[in-house]
Specification:
The chain is mostly helical. Helices cover 66% and strands 0% of the residues. The chain is flat, with a radius of gyration of 21 Å.
Amino acid sequence: FWGRPDRGQPILGPFNFTERTLYVGAAPLVLAAAGLAVRGRLRSHRFFAGLTAVALLVSFDTGPVASVAADLPGLDQVNLTRALALASFGLALLAGYGADRLLRADAAERRRMLLVAGAVLVIIGVGHHLAIGLAVVGVLASCSPWTLRWITGGC
């Protein structure tokens, strides 16, 4: 959205690419979701799940949580997209908790964790294919009629 990460975009957005980027990876995301799906979560699990959710809501500027955070003294002077660092930290810890739980789980808990992991992977896959489909439709919609005839073989 903001162009190349090695060049500043003074008109379109922030200068620092790493402050506005969140990448966790599929495996940690699956482990975090699977770890939260089993019973016996500790207070720390709930805390970091809440921290991650609030950090994502604040950094993406969605809903009343972001509005309240933007109006708090001190935070009104800060770029709130930096909360993505907290979300990344929370997801990393939840992935670690999930991996630990997977190693210590009995057969029933492992089965439940694998079902949640499979569901998360399906959601990621469907979202990926929808995004690619929308991109292809956008590209084809911007093509000239001659280009469309060339792509489709004159149909």
